[in-house]
Structures are given as C-alpha cells and as structure tokens.
Amino acid sequence: MPRPVLDRLAALRAEMESNPDAWWRTLTGRIAAARAEVAAFLRTTPDALAFVPNASSGASTVLASLRFPRGARVLMTDHTYGAVAMGVRRVAALHGAVVDTVHVPLDASTEDIASLFARKLGSGAPVALVVVDQITSPTARLFPLPEIVAASHAAGARVLVDGAHAPGLLADPLGHASGADYWTGNLHKWTCGPRGTAALVAAEDVAQELVPLVNSWGAPNPYPHRFDEQGTQDVTGWLAVPGSLAFFAERGGWDAARARMERTVTAAQALLAEALGADLAGVSVHEAPAMRLIPLAATLATDPDRAAALQRRVAAELRCEVSITSWDGRGFLRLSAHVYNRPEEYEYLAERLPALFAAAEREAD
Q1: 82 lies in which domain range?
Q2: How sure is the predictor about 234, in pLDDT bands with cuts at 50, 70 and 90?
Q3: CA separation for the pair 334, 363 (Å, rounded)
Q4: pLDDT of 42 strictly over 90
C-alpha cells in the first residue's frame, strides 16, 4: 500500500475512534463520494456498485441472494478460485442444485473455450448460473469473457464474474466482462488499496435482488446503499481506496504502470524458465497481464497441500514470497510483477530456486 494511503487510513481511523457517534453521522456522504470515485475508475455508475470486503465476499453475496430451482445446474470451471468453488458447492447443495464443471486446458484457444462452454450449457438440465473467473488465480489465465457471457445468456443462464485480480491489471475490467449480470473485484490487490476493500457491480435488472451477508439497519435501503451500513464495521478502507487510485494516476498513469509490470514479468518468466529448465509450451495462451506461469517438475506441488508446503519452504529458506500453485495434478510457479518489483529480485530467485527445487524433488522421490 502506498505510504500516503497508509497515512490517510491512519488519519481516518483516528478520527473514527475520537468520536464514533459523530463519525457514523458523516458516513453516508463519505461512502457516496468514495463509491463515485471507484465507479468512475471501473467505468460504471455509482448506483451499480456496492462496497464489499473482498471478491469472495462479493461472490458469496450473489450466491446467497439467489434461489436455484431443484435440479438446475450451476456451472463453473476447474480454474475457479477455491473459496468461491466451496461457496458454489455449499449453496447448490442447499437448494438441491447440481454443480457442473467445465475442464479448460491451459492451451485452449478462445474458440476452444467458447465451444467447451457451449457444449456444457447445451447438455443436461438448465443452467441457472455460470460462475467464471476473469483472471484465474491458480493458472493466471485471462478468460475470453465476451464469448462465455454470450454463450451463457443464449442458454438462459445468468453470469457471475469473479474479477478478483482485474482492477488495476485491466484498463476496463467491466468492459471486458460486458453483459455479465454480476461482477466482483478486489481493490486491495493490484490497485494497492487497504485490505478488506472490494467492489460488487450488478446489472440494473438484477441488482435489487442482492442483499448483504449480514443483516443490519441498512437492510431496508435499496441496492447499493443497503451494503453501506452493517453494524460497527470499519469502513475506513473503503474511504481510503480513492487515494490508491490517485497515487498511480498522478505518477505516470495506469497505462504506464501496466506497461512496466508487463515488461518486468515477461523478462522474469524468460529468466526463471531458463534457470529452471522449464518448457513454456502450452502456458502462453490467454496469459493474464503482469502474471505468468512456469511449470515445475512433475513431482513438485502435485496438489494444493504440497504446493502450499513448497511455498512455505521458499519463504523460510530464501526469505522471499512467491506463489506456488497446483492445478490438474501439476505444480506451477506463478509469477507476478507490480511497479515496486525490480529485475534483481527475479535474478535472486533464478540463482537460488533451482537448488531448492532440486532438493525438494529428491525428497519427493
């Protein structure tokens, strides 16, 4: 988080704690002002946007607000973020709905992905909801949402887009997800806002069905205002988010920031792939901006638990934070780069990761 935003957050919290009653009386106007700035950044209208703590909360809000006919299907992919997938399965079970999963190979083209969704949508019971990642967490893919949304709507299904990584990485995440019924994205990731800040955006014809996960005094209000007042929740993060957006806009702009991230991660992927002897064939389709995959040896990170253990080992031995993911029985080093990352950080990894991974391979045999 940028230092000016940390300072702003501290000032807001000090003001809140100095007189909580006076603070609550000012919140309606403050939240409205912050919502207007975030909506402008995302290229939507304030009436479409509710603040939520994170993208998983936004997805859970949508899932909890809907009623699925018994026997109807809820469609997701095998790239769906784990917490969201758990929510899909739980809510589907409550309503007697069926969860169906689309397998999307890493090297699938746009046409392949559209065909995979069309086949799933057209076979079996009606699909009530399609849950799809904009940028996948374990595999760093940018899914072709226009084709997926069009196929889903043609089959009569609503679409929930998990855009957790999209704000900041994509210039127009809602434009890329155009037509989706629901979209949710984090403001604490690439936009560097405070933790616990995210946006939920809903189409006008479905927005009033959405209710917060917590019942509070704002419940009688229309969407999105019913999300603003939930007990004594600390909303200073929401109010500080515009400062993060302005920080990058005032220092070269978002396009320049994204270009720098892309240059850094592209060079880092080439450097580390060479150091690890990794073959990048098959992982270069639909790559997300500023995020890249490097396949690991076949015996490494073969499931989420082993991936988490390897990630902890890298942190402990190299004192460096990296993302190790597991998908479809394969382990990956998932690289990312922000403007604060420097080439020498990846050079450090290239010098040390091969020996650490080789040791982990020997222990796995």
Answers
A1: 3-249
A2: very high
A3: 22
A4: yes
